[in-house]
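Action item from last week, closing it out:
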Amino acid sequence: MQLPSNKIKAIIAIVILIIIASVIYTVSQKEEELPTMTVQEKKARFKSLIVPAVDAVYTKLMTRYEDVKATIDAGKSNAKIEALKVEYKATTNAELLMALKPHPKSIAIAQAAMESSWATSRFFRVAYNIFGVWSFDKDEPRVAALQKRGDKTIWVKKYDSVEASVEDYYRTLGRSSAFAEFRQTRVQTNDPFVLVTKLDRYSEKGSLYGEELTSIIKFNKFDNYDEN
């Protein structure tokens, strides 16, 4: 029995769509693949991608912090400062300065290494998400994790660049209530090995997270970047 021409056309269209989808998937998978690298090559690649972005963001944030602090120390305020208080959920000048002071670059670099598996994770490759930052807003750019937690889909933010990811990471630590103790300690010291002990709420690993960050910073001498 011969099928009607309209059904034949529909079947052909479906087959073509399946082929196109298969090609797109194959290409995207190839784009995500990384060449086999030695540990040294992987770390060199990581540093070339992450360190310049951390340097740029840190410099920008430190300049902003110093400008705001100078204005506050002079007993003044302005619209920018008031807007920053709203953004960072600060009710006092002291809280705002705690929120705005950037923490040492060594911590950011070590967390980037841990959270992105040295810039090889899928989240980094497809979304520039270096720090494993989750998304709870369906209207913002984001990607789904491949594995669910029970029946719940986990989403992470998608960024336009490495620098954008670093900026959002610093902003998150500057305004989230989970890191209030970290911010308070940051005002008192720039010692990365003290500060990482206050990041136990960043990870489900708890206090072990700070210990691992300490090891990464020491072994890779990331604290040398704090001298620049």
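Closing note: The chain is about 60% helix and 5% strand.
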